[in-house]
Structure formats: structure tokens, C-alpha cells
Amino acid sequence: MTARIGVVTFPGSLDDRDTQRAIRLAGAEPVALWHKDKDLKQVDAVVLCGGFSYGDYLRAGAIARFSPVMETVIEQAKSGMPVLGICNGFQILTEAHLLPGGMLGNDHLHFICRDQKLRVENAETAWTVDYEAGQEINIPLKNMDGRYVADERTLDMLEAEGRVAFRYLDFNPNGSMRDIAGISNEAGNVVGLMPHPEHAVEPLIGTGRTDGLPFFTSILKKLVNV
């Protein structure tokens, strides 16, 4: 029986179908989840996809964090369910306090869309085990509020505990502190990042590479080994 991975759609989500396709290409069954439903339909993991949930009113992810589905996602994540937040999903995870820190507008005050080089810093989370620590990958990036910020104590904690999952290389596209592109929670089951791995899963689209596919094969490997 294949793993079932839920993809939450909020009003303003853009990349739910792309994420479902990436999951399918990895060999799992994508399950559509609606923001108003608390029922997660017995999925094994959840992805919060990119977009502009609720138009990014108040702050990016601030309203989506209170959607009915998030009540169950927060509860299950704290119990160990793997959760991946991509771009707006990362913003929602910080607003829900499943990940520390927060997201602010890009330091150059413009929307940015580019192929972005990253370095894998932690290859031991539920979503990164098919990478190698130190591996350099190229993943599409598109955001307006992608600047990761946290106080120095939190940043030092993330560094000391190996919870910086990805770091920008060559160019910091949004002013994120310490070039942080993605982080994990202490248990490693919750990961958030600003770049979009679902746009780099087959040679025809995105970067023309498949550097994003290991996110989705990683979680399959993790679920099989549970």
C-alpha cells in the first residue's frame, strides 16, 4: 500500500497541483485537503504548498494559520507526522509556531523569481534523507516575503542543533539572516523552505533538472522505515 501525502489548498494557493504531481512522480498517492476541513483523510504526511493564502493579508500565512485544517496539522505535527512547508507553507509554519522565527518582505522590496543554488546543510530530516550534507542543488525560487528573520539566540540555537536545512549559495535573494533558505523543527519531521522543489522534479520544467525530487522520495523512504 503506497504512502498517502496530503496537500492543503487555501484560498490563494498556487502550487497545489504541482505539488500533487511531484508526489505522484515520487511514487506516492497525493491527497487533496481543503482548508476548511479538519479531517486529514488518514494521510501519512502533509505538504503546505506555495501561493498567497488569503492574499497575504495582515502577514503572509497569518490568516491561513487559523484555518480549521491547521488545527489538525499542528496537533499531528507535534505527534510526529511529517509536514513540509514550501514558500507560503513555510510562512504558515512560522505563524503556527511549528518552526521558529518569521518571514518579512524581501530586503530589496521586490518580488523575485529565479533559479537558486542551495546547499543542503541537514540530510537527516524526514524530507532530506535522499540528499547528502553539503550537496549543492538548484531549485526555483519565487517570493515577495521570503526574508527569514529570528533573534540571535534563536539563530545560534538553529546552527548549534543542526536545524538549518538549506542555505542560499552565491546570492542571497531576499536578505534572509545567515543565508538561511530552510529550517527544521527539533524532531526533524517538520521542514520549511522558501524555494520550490515541486518545480524541479522533471527535466522538462523548472531548472531542467530534478534536484527537487529527493524531497518527495525522502519522505517515502522515511515512511517505509517507520
TrEMBL record:
<keyword id="KW-0658">Purine biosynthesis</keyword>
<keyword id="KW-0315">Glutamine amidotransferase</keyword>
<keyword id="KW-0436">Ligase</keyword>
<keyword id="KW-0378">Hydrolase</keyword>
<keyword id="KW-0067">ATP-binding</keyword>
<feature type="active site" description="Nucleophile">
    <location>
        <position position="87"/>
    </location>
</feature>
<dbReference type="Pfam" id="PF13507">
    <property type="entry name" value="GATase_5"/>
</dbReference>
<protein>
    <recommendedName>
        <fullName>Phosphoribosylformylglycinamidine synthase subunit PurQ</fullName>
        <ecNumber>6.3.5.3</ecNumber>
        <ecNumber>3.5.1.2</ecNumber>
    </recommendedName>
</protein>
<feature type="active site">
    <location>
        <position position="198"/>
    </location>
</feature>
<feature type="active site">
    <location>
        <position position="196"/>
    </location>
</feature>
<dbReference type="InterPro" id="IPR029062">
    <property type="entry name" value="Class_I_gatase-like"/>
</dbReference>
<comment type="function">
    <text>Part of the phosphoribosylformylglycinamidine synthase complex involved in the purines biosynthetic pathway. Catalyzes the ATP-dependent conversion of formylglycinamide ribonucleotide (FGAR) and glutamine to yield formylglycinamidine ribonucleotide (FGAM) and glutamate. The FGAM synthase complex is composed of three subunits. PurQ produces an ammonia molecule by converting glutamine to glutamate. PurL transfers the ammonia molecule to FGAR to form FGAM in an ATP-dependent manner.</text>
</comment>
<comment type="subunit">
    <text>Part of the FGAM synthase complex composed of 1 PurL, 1 PurQ and 2 PurS subunits.</text>
</comment>
<keyword id="KW-0547">Nucleotide-binding</keyword>
<keyword id="KW-0963">Cytoplasm</keyword>
<dbReference type="InterPro" id="IPR010075">
    <property type="entry name" value="PRibForGlyAmidine_synth_PurQ"/>
</dbReference>
<comment type="pathway">
    <text>Purine metabolism; IMP biosynthesis via de novo pathway; 5-amino-1-(5-phospho-D-ribosyl)imidazole from N(2)-formyl-N(1)-(5-phospho-D-ribosyl)glycinamide: step 1/2.</text>
</comment>
